Amino acid sequence: MNQINQNSAKQAADGMRKLIMVQGVVLLVVGLILLLFPAASLTTLVFILGVYWLIEGLATVYSAFQQRSHNRHWWWSLISGGLGILAGFIVLAKPGSSTVFTTSFLVSLLGFIAIINGVSALLTANQLKKRQQNGKTYLWRGIFALILGILLIAAPFSSALVIVKIIGIFLILAGLVTIAMARQLKLKASRFA
């Protein structure tokens, strides 16, 4: 009976190691795709977003019509769903130009948020300085956020491509670490066999 438990545990550990290895390979492949084909990856992500908007818009319109008898503001859902359907159709009809527009808009929005956070941090640093407290962390955070915001707004699509490449690099590193971990588990398992 003890031998059966050991074999069962060994099979479970071997299965877990194989799963970890597959996860590492998938991370590595996805990372390489993002790193080597950032524009195509971005287009694919925006295409998926378009499909989501279309499905969500249809569901919202359906829900609006279901609520019209007991919700007097049902038309807000109807408008929201209609906009979702429209956005989905636009993205699916013109994925290339939609990628540039959608990505540029979202990255520019992130740039504006970074600038607002930067100004807020600089104001906090100034207040701390007036109170004779150390505000250098807020000062540097504010400067960094302002620079980041300006860069994102100045070249939003290029910034998005750089972000995709950075994510690709992180996924490649995570994949390599995961594969190494799976190999390490195999080595430890062979020592106990």
TrEMBL record:
Keyword Disulfide bond belongs to the record: no
InterPro entries per record: Acid_resist_chaperone_HdeD, DUF308_memb
Keyword Transmembrane: yes
Residue intervals passing through the bilayer: 20-39, 45-65, 74-93, 105-126, 138-157, 163-182
GO cellular component, one term: plasma membrane
Swiss-Prot/TrEMBL keywords: Membrane, Transmembrane, Transmembrane helix
Annotated PANTHER family: PROTEIN HDED
Name assigned to this protein: Uncharacterized membrane protein HdeD (DUF308 family)
